[in-house]
């Protein structure tokens, strides 16, 4: 069969089917190992890949999420009644909302000169020459004037500074923590959309009519067991779920993550797709001086052209709403790809079993002799002999090439 | 060939090439099925995986995005002119920006006592004993003093409360919706960077010089067809594209998602990579009492040491700028991996065709006889016989092992 | 062997092991190519996939991150001392924080009538009829009254408008840039959690006790080489690292990305997992009229019932804290999957070598004759002949089917 014949064969042979020749080894232990490995691979694919991991589904892990928060509650402090307009920040209601639970207020600060706080480095002095005029100490509150003045109503002296006076460390009024905030509620509305499947879901219970829903929302409080579909959360409940002591939180403030988790299977009814909630203190800096959560802001007033401000150091409970979403739906492409991978992996069994067979079982080389055919030896020596015998009863044009069968 | 010979063979045979023996089946239907399945698999890989999904590319799906927004516009309400400084929140211009479209303003609230709103549970009273002193009703506005007082200028009475007075539900002044806001514009600047490829792109049209660009930006308004590269959007256009009625939105407020979508192919010129925009109401709670978007805030004033506030319930149109980015570029690794997977998948065709052949075509067992060679039977029985005959004309050292060829 | 026999064989043969028959080609060049390709594939998998890409690990790329920022510093401007309460926005300390570095302040704006700025289109006039009453020019500042009035203290006239007067363009007082802001520090606390591994890590140095840590944090400044674990950053250092001129930034403002990058390998000690920082100007619109970063806000005052405001155009340096996290840990599943893929890929070598062999080496068709066995020809012609001979010395029930071996 020359080159021409080869090409002819190739063209003619396009519609031929080629299948590998296979040697059957009737060896029970080997067979058991072979089937055992096959069974493991199949089980892995069917149980883990297809049933547990749902590899037949197209998945969407980055849904579009919109969060809307609103805080509500009234608290009484002394003879003053506070509502959440004073307490909740920012008021716009995005996916981060915080409530002030304790305040240290410095009233009526003005641009003036006053004594620096004694804790600031090199602020203590006895005479004016101890204070460098114009110096701005980084940990201090302002610019030194160069004078040494009595520290407010005390007997010692500190350097005078030009700043918002009086300084916060001296003049701040510590208000008691707002323990009533445990009863504040926060409404967390979350709408999620899976663009790949064009499904939109919300976390608010579907009620038959608007009035019923309004009534439900005006009364319900979220509870994992009793009211899992009410999106209104008591701050005290959130702290409990995050395993934090609310009274403790009120002293230092803290950042709590509210995790909304959507696990949706759109092969079943989309309306079964409901969120679960979990809560955890995000800020783990418990042993740090900067632990907790606080920030400072000021309210500015103008009286007869003179600007004054009220400085507020606000300790807050901040809620970070973090939405995780996952949805899957049957799709042909991943099903095919994973099935192909599964089938391909079964072929791996052969590699393992071949190694076992050739190393441990095939002591006499029987199987290897049979499995491995030497192209040269086999072709030229015994078969050519056999051929001589065989050729009596046959008629091959192939012989003209001098190539044995 | 003993163990020693096997080892010797193995060492000598390291540079041997091993290739599976293949049986050719000249069966037209089977060949057609075989080539058909191969064609399907190849088509799937070439068309879908390589051309459509661009599997030869390395991809980057989580680019770094920076959004900068600015709102602009002037609206007249009665004899008052408002600019966006009053309307846009937050002023800093992050990826969420909102404009107030309607306000309910409660002027001059002070810490006082006043009558509770009649809609609050158990607020209606006829005598003082109907009101529990110190009670703070959760849905109410303050702490009850225990007195029953006339409801403002009405004929009935409600419990007196200590709160920010007067209560919002009674005193709020409803302003008309700001329909002119449809002409407000929002500038949305978006810079995106794909770290894997170190390419940075912006959504603002590249103009030959600064002055031309400034001129362009001062006049252009985004329009999908006419001005696709102008980053300035009319609020009315956004509402239209989101298929919402702007007048309706002005009444209830709403949250609209502005989706900026980057699909970049860096195998071609990176400057061809331009964003597309889409708009959709994110908040689907149309039939809810809390539908729409509003929030409350207050402006605080201090007059002669007495604090007062103006409480504003602001209905707003909030824009959430959501950026999706995807970029791909040729890379050797995924090209190799996917080519290998493609070749491997063609092997799957054999599994299918083998099954068809052995089950449907191979009625007489001709092919299975040929394909499957029993290591024992084939080796010991017929071949050994053949061997006896054959051995006449040959001279094998192999025979010493007693193992037939 | 009939259908019955086939079924019987199949049932009995369940525990048989099947292995492909292999032809050995003793061809040195081909063997070298074969082993070379195998070596390349193995090297790729072992070195790149397993060692470099750590394919034996389960990975987590979307950790939960909580960012907490606080700005600190004092700056003197004229005879006024500013602290960060006036400069930092928003005060709450989320993952975006900005500092005002330059201000253009328009004091005492009130709802009045005044002259429009001359740069507004069609604002210049000589007589009242040049101004359309009620017109609201989009690029203007208010509603035209229809009068033509002198432009403040100048000799020319512009249309009168009803607006917040005086207009910003005319009355704004440009304050000098706050170059001292280079010494402002920003504390960036970042806590990261990998839910898949339940490991939480923070970016603050672990000190033996609270007091030592407090002392450390009160003094340290981040420096890539000297203090890599101090979370307090000088603004000047950040600008340097982002390769920006701070003085330049102070004029135009700018948005700088602070990238916190966690690369964690939990197969080693989790406490080795520490973040690296990088800084880059996010806003690349250098040649744009809107380049830099500024926003406007106002402080509102009420004096004797008349509302006034101070409008502030604030140029700021905004820091966007962007956290990237990646963690890996040994896991059985990906190890198995990738090993299987690696083994499967070695099979690809055969496809390449077969092609080389049959095209370039196998000139006489020796190998192809040997590799490809024609089911029909091989079975019926020569073997049947051989069979005739062979059958003498054997006793096959199979013969009853008339099918040769």
What does it look like?
The structure is a homotrimer of 405-residue chains. Chain A is an alpha+beta fold and 405 residues long. In chain A, helix 2 packs antiparallel against helix 8. The first copy, chain A, is 29% helix and 35% strand. The first copy, chain A, is elongated. The interface between A and C is large, with 94 and 74 residues. Strand 2 (22-25) of chain A pairs parallel with strand 19 of chain B.
What is the C-alpha radius of gyration of chain A, as a whole number of Å? Answer: 40 Å
Q: How much strand content do the residues of chain A show? A: 35-45%
Largest interface: A-C, 94 and 74 residues
Instruction: Supply the number of helical segments of chain A.
Output: 11
State mean pLDDT of chain A (0 to 100 scale).
79
The run of helices and strands of chain A is HEEHEEEEHEEEEHEEEHEHHEEEEHHEHH
Beta strands of chain A, count: 19
Helical percentage of chain A: 25-40%
The low-pLDDT segments of chain A are 378-405
Q: Note the overall shape of chain A.
A: elongated
Structure class of chain A: alpha+beta
Largest sheet of chain A: 10 strands, mixed
* Distance from first to last alpha carbon of chain A: 11 Å
Oligomer: homotrimer
């Amino acid at each position: 069969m020359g080159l021409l014949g080869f090409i002819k064969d190739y063209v003619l042979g396009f519609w031929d089917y080629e299948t590998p020749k296979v040697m059957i080894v009737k060896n029970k232990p080997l067979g058991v190992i072979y089937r055992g490995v096959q069974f493991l691979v199949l089980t892995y694919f069917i149980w883990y890949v297809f049933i547990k991991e749902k590899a037949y589904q197209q998945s969407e892990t980055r849904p579009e999420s919109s969060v809307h928060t609103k805080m509500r509650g009234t608290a009484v402090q002394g003879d003053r009644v506070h509502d959440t307009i004073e307490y909740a920040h920012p008021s716009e209601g995005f996916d981060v909302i915080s409530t002030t639970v304790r305040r240290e207020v410095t009233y009526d600060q003005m641009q003036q000169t006053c004594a620096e706080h004694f804790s600031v480095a090199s602020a203590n002095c006895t005479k004016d020459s101890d204070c460098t005029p114009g110096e701005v100490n980084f940990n201090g509150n302002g610019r030194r004037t160069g004078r040494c003045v009595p520290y407010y109503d005390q007997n010692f002296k500190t350097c005078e500074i030009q700043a918002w006076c009086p300084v916060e460390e001296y003049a701040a009024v510590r208000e008691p923590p707002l323990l009533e905030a445990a009863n504040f509620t926060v409404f967390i509305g979350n709408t999620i959309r899976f663009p790949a499947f064009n499904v939109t879901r919300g976390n608010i219970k579907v009620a038959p009519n608007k009035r019923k829903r309004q009534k439900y929302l005006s009364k319900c409080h979220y509870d994992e067991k009793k009211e899992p579909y009410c999106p209104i959360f008591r701050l005290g409940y959130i702290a409990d779920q995050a395993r934090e002591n609310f009274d403790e939180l009120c002293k230092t403030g803290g950042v709590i993550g509210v995790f909304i988790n959507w696990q949706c299977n759109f092969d079943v009814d989309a309306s079964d797709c409901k969120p679960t909630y979990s809560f955890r203190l995000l800020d783990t800096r418990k042993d740090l001086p900067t632990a907790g959560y606080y920030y400072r802001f000021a309210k500015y007033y103008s009286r007869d052209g003179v600007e004054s401000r009220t400085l507020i150091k606000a300790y807050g409970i901040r809620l970070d709403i973090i939405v995780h979403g996952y949805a899957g739906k049957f799709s042909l492409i991943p099903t095919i790809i994973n099935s192909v991978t599964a089938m391909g992996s079964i072929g791996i069994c052969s590699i393992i079993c071949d190694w076992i067979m050739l190393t441990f079982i095939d002591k006499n080389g029987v199987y290897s002799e049979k499995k491995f055919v030497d192209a040269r030896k086999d072709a030229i020596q015994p078969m050519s002999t056999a051929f001589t015998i065989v050729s009596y009863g046959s008629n091959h044009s192939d012989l003209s090439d001098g190539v044995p069968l």
